[in-house]
Design goal:
The protein has 15 helices and 13 strands. By secondary structure, it is of the alpha/beta class. The strands form four sheets. It has a seven-stranded mixed β-sheet with strand order 5-6-7-2-1-8-9, covered by helices on one side. Strands 3-4 form a two-stranded antiparallel sheet. The N and C termini lie far apart (about 60 Å).
Length: about 425
């Protein structure tokens, strides 16, 4: 499996300058690495898994066209500089970055010239940081037990020769690439360019960027740089005078990649499918165990925080003294649906979602701190003139989150739907 990076394995051209923005503002390389884990194609993993179900061994190689990393165009000297590293890394105009390379410094240990100015060397190192971050993000997404080779070219891609150079039989080697100019190559599977992201992935990336680099703190020169590209690839947008990070939204489901037929026997394909199913089951068990451990850690942390909460005899929440203007911690035991709605600021980006709501519910349950709250007589005895929906809503308002869960099971709706209905019923009253 040979993977193009830009607009194929990851969003946009090198994530459409989002990573460059972090580097421009001198954010740590860890932030850049985190970004690339969030901009991966949502159909990358399914394509890899489908290949794994057909072949017993699937080798992954990354193949990207980035001329600037081979023939560096210096904006300081208006000069094109041919970059050379270790001789064995260069072949037929392409640069092969081996798996043992971990950081840009590992690459520059084999730098053979020509001499660069400090600013030029720093620019190339930043480009290498982004490339290696993308490589590591793809490795993690595919759960590879090895680091894939990265092939950088400054010219047209040569699939068969590159596959053989990387130790892959060209017979079953296929390049997945968004470049329609390669459509006539029988070894190329042309995919739709990833120029937008679906929800909730898009919102998570935008929230990450705003958290790591609030747009209001960005260098004005950076904003000018980000606007000096094609409008469809801009990482920022201006609305009513305000500037904000921009990622186009995918309004339709992203098509899965077509997996071409492989030249292998039916027996080998059947064995590959059985091995893949066994591996997937093991991975699901491992991921489930990891989720349980994370949830327990979150529950323990929540329990420690709630030990500071005191409840008086009337069931009203009382907290330890807090500084003037600071928010107090609500008593979760007595939290009603109405109170739950008011806790929206605790959810991801201030938005209540099924995932975050269910996660917090599970944390409270594991911590053993949930109990239903009996409805007051006023709320549990609505007037006979109230519509049926309003009656249910008034009854629901008196329930705690435990009671809400019981209610929603009977309705056949999600927990989020139940909370939203409660909000509507509150308006009815």
């Amino acid at each position: 499996m040979i993977l193009d990076i830009d607009k194929t394995a990851i969003y946009g051209n090198d994530a459409n300058d989002l990573a460059i923005s972090l580097q421009w503002m001198e954010k740590p390389s860890t932030s850049v690495r985190k970004l690339y884990t969030k901009v991966l194609s949502p159909v990358l993993r399914p394509a890899y898994e489908e290949l794994c179900s057909k072949a017993r061994k699937v080798d992954v190689v990354l193949y990207t066209r980035r001329p600037q990393m081979i023939r560096y165009q210096s904006c300081m000297r208006d000069l094109c500089i041919p970059i050379r590293y270790k001789d064995s890394w260069h072949e037929d105009g392409q640069l092969y970055i081996p798996p043992e390379v971990k950081e840009p410094e590992d690459v520059f240990q084999h730098f053979q010239g020509p001499e660069l100015r400090p600013e030029e060397a720093a620019d190339i190192k930043k480009a290498l940081t982004r490339l290696l971050a993308a490589r590591d993000a793809i490795r993690g997404e595919l759960d590879l037990d090895y680091t894939p080779t990265v092939v950088v070219t400054a010219s047209d891609k040569k699939v068969e020769a590159t596959a053989e150079r990387c130790g892959i039989s060209s017979e079953n080697a296929f390049l997945f690439d968004d470049n329609k100019g390669l459509a006539r190559d029988p070894r190329v599977v042309v995919v739709d360019p990833l120029e937008s992201l679906p929800e909730p992935q898009r919102s998570k990336v935008l929230a990450f960027m705003e958290a790591e680099l609030p747009i209001k703190s960005a260098d004005p020169y950076l904003l000018d740089y980000l606007e000096d590209v094609k409008e469809t690839e801009r990482a920022i947008e201006r609305l009513a005078g305000d500037v904000r990070w921009r990622i186009p939204l995918s309004y339709r489901k992203i098509d899965r990649w077509i997996i071409p037929p492989l030249n292998i026997s039916r027996e080998d394909e059947a064995v590959a499918l059985k091995e893949f199913e066994d591996l997937r089951e093991a991975l699901e068990l491992r991921e489930g165990k990891a989720r349980d451990e994370r949830l327990k850690a979150q529950s323990d942390d929540l329990s420690r925080k709630l030990q500071k909460v005191k409840v008086n005899d009337e069931g009203k929440a009382a907290t330890t003294p807090v500084a003037a203007g600071a928010k107090s911690t609500p008593d979760i035991k007595r939290l009603t649906v109405e109170g739950y709605l008011e806790k929206s600021e605790l959810y991801d980006n201030g938005v209540m979602t099924p995932v975050t709501l269910e996660k917090e519910m599970a944390m409270y349950e594991n911590a053993g701190i949930l109990s239903p709250v009996s409805p007051s007589s006023e709320e549990s005895t609505p007037s006979s003139s109230s519509p049926p929906q309003a009656k249910q809503g008034l009854e629901l308002r008196g329930l705690g989150v435990d009671g809400l869960r019981d209610k929603k099971e009977g309705w056949g709706v999600s927990l989020l739907d139940a909370v939203q209905k409660a909000a509507e019923w509150r308006k009815v009253k």
